[in-house]
Automatic annotation (TrEMBL):
Protein name listed in UniProt: PAR14 polymerase
All residue ranges annotated as the PARP14 second RRM domain in the record: 5-83
Classification via Gene3D superfamilies: 3.30.70.330
Domain of life: Eukaryota
Gene source species: Melospiza melodia (Song sparrow)
One Pfam family, short name: RRM_PARP14_3
Length: 139
């Protein structure tokens, strides 16, 4: 299995588990520490949280542990690996934003970016689709 597992795990149906509770639950299941070993981003609009592991761990195994964990099941949460993507949508952009600015911004490693292949601006929506180069390389 040469494909790298995603470092991010999605947790769905999180409304019955507070953010602090989710942090402690993940610490208990993974044996890791929030902030030092993983971060959690809440997306309350769709009742989801995304845990991103900073340490190289077997996220497939973690998803399996979560699906069998008593507390996760009591909260009716589900967990799965976040698929990697080459494109993202940036919203609520300033009207004067340029594709060059977005390219440089999203290529900044400080912002967690990487090489950008294309930027499509949608001025009427104040949004853009940013497509990154394939990091795996097909050479």
């Amino acid at each position: 299995d040469s494909a790298e597992a995603s470092p991010s795990v999605v947790f769905e149906n999180i409304e019955r588990c507070s953010p602090k509770c989710l942090e402690m639950l993940l610490e208990n299941i993974s044996g890791l520490t929030v902030d030092a070993d993983f971060t959690i981003e809440l997306i309350p609009e769709i009742n989801v949280a995304v845990a991103t592991f900073l340490k190289n761990i077997d996220t497939k195994e973690l998803v399996e542990k979560c699906s069998q964990h008593k507390r996760v099941r009591e909260f009716n949460m589900t967990a799965w690996l976040l698929e990697s993507t080459q494109s993202i949508k940036a919203e609520n952009l300033p009207e004067s934003i340029s594709s060059d600015y977005l390219t440089v911004y999203f290529e900044s490693t400080r912002n967690g970016g990487g090489p950008v292949e294309d930027v499509q601006l949608f001025p009427e929506e104040n949004s853009a689709i940013i497509t990154f180069c394939d990091h795996k390389g097909n050479s």
